[in-house]
UniProtKB/TrEMBL annotation:
All residue ranges annotated as the Extradiol ring-cleavage dioxygenase class III enzyme subunit B domain in the record: 47-262
One example GO MF annotation: oxidoreductase activity, acting on single donors with incorporation of molecular oxygen, incorporation of two atoms of oxygen
Record organism: Parascedosporium putredinis
Protein family per UniProt: Belongs to the DODA-type extradiol aromatic ring-opening dioxygenase family.
Pfam families: LigB
Cofactor (UniProt): Zn(2+)
Record protein name field: Extradiol ring-cleavage dioxygenase class III enzyme subunit B domain-containing protein
Keywords linked to the UniProt accession: Metal-binding, Oxidoreductase, Zinc
RNA-binding as UniProt keyword: no
InterPro entries referenced in this protein's UniProt entry, alphabetically: Extradiol_dOase_DODA, Xdiol_dOase_suB
Length: 285
């Protein structure tokens, strides 16, 4: 199989507003509609046969994997416009792919569990509505771990890497560059007042250090650099302590990237850069 079919990427999303065309998400909307489909080679004979999506919005004690043939949607958000609670995304699940995920994780010493009742949260249906509105590719959703232990998430990623040889794409759905709601409010206020905030400088310092760590050439070096991600500049401000769930899908994808070169692109979000990292398809975006 051609090497470009071995895919893994981390996609940034935070709420249902991109589907509503929210201006603050303009760049992210563009990337989800254009860049990510290009990375996945959607609409070509090389499109993935299935997608395994690791979501920041489902934290569990052990990896849990959706195994329903037709999951529903779980509107796991509050205070948004009424129409965001009637969104639909009709892609199928895949019990057979779920079994493959489970078996691969067991080989890494993990204790995964299949769940045929769990519906897809907005970490799945919001980005995928924009990425693949045809909803014609099966999706299996995977949780992240409450422990936030990098080693466990690296093990999850190593397991998922083996599935990429079967043309199964791996997507991590989370806001890895920053997920701190209080600081997001500060940024929105700064944008409304027409000025930059000190947060921008700290965000840039964090993103620089994070990108350097994620871009290590070998999987071992990458894991070593990311194992101490809490020591990167301003990490606890970007992801409050015991609130790092939006960072965890990146750890999984960084391990699933194996020995392949890291690519990235950035989007503006309320005055800061949010990065997407990807492996296995180094193309002009």
């Amino acid at each position: 199989m051609s090497s470009y079919l071995r895919r893994g990427l981390i996609s940034a999303i935070v709420c249902p507003m991109p589907i509503m065309g929210d201006a603050n998400h303009k760049d992210i909307i563009y990337s989800l509609k254009h860049r990510v489909p290009k990375l996945l080679r959607l609409g070509t004979p090389d499109a993935p046969q299935a997608i395994v999506l690791v979501t920041a919005h489902w934290t569990t004690s052990t990896p849990i994997i959706t195994s329903s043939q037709k999951p529903g949607l779980y509107y796991d958000y509050y205070g948004f416009p009424k129409e965001t609670y009637s969104l639909k995304y009709d892609a199928p699940g895949s019990p057979s792919i779920a079994e493959k995920v489970k078996a691969a994780m067991e080989k890494q010493g993990l204790e995964p569990v299949l769940d045929a009742k769990r519906d897809w949260d907005h970490g799945v249906f919001v980005p995928m509505t924009l990425v693949n509105p045809k909803a014609d590719i099966p999706i299996v959703q995977v949780s992240v771990l409450k422990s936030e232990d990098p080693a466990q998430h690296f093990a999850m990623g190593r397991a998922l890497e083996t599935l990429r040889d079967e043309n199964i794409a791996i997507i991590g759905s989370g806001f890895a560059s920053m997920h701190n709601l209080a600081k997001m409010g500060e940024l929105m206020m700064g944008r409304q007042l027409g000025g930059a905030t000190p947060m921008r400088k700290r965000s840039d310092e964090w993103n620089t250090a994070l990108t350097e760590a994620v871009s290590k050439e070998s999987a071992g070096e990458r894991a070593a650099a990311l194992a101490g991600w809490r020591q990167l500049p301003h990490a606890d401000e970007m992801h409050p302590k015991r609130g790092g769930e939006h960072f965890l899908p990146l750890l999984v994808c960084a391990a699933a990237g194996g020995e392949e070169k890291t690519g990235n692109y950035k989007d503006d979000f309320i005055g800061i850069d949010v990065f997407t990292y990807y492996w296995g398809n180094q193309i002009d975006l």
